[in-house]
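Name: Putative septation protein SpoVG
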Amino acid sequence: MKITDVRVRKVTKQGKMRAVVSVTFDNEFVVHDIKVIEGERGLFIAMPSKKSTDGEYRDIAHPINSDMRKVLQDTILEAYDKAADEAAEGDSAEATVE
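Structure predicted for Putative septation protein SpoVG:
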């Protein structure tokens, strides 16, 4: 399975969340609402989640292994950097990486 599209829909400077991203796989399957978060050790991604009845948040979709998580995170952060650069230049805050 290959990542065929990454769309950075929102780039913000408030709070810890920096962007909301959609990722398309094999031009056939999309995962929305992946968040780019600024943590103490830099940027990372948070997969879409849902609050369960016990009050905890559980991922709705997520990579099965660490290799795929790294590929996904690296690709998303590359798209985020591109969108942030374009926003700083006055362009739209939405970017696509294919």
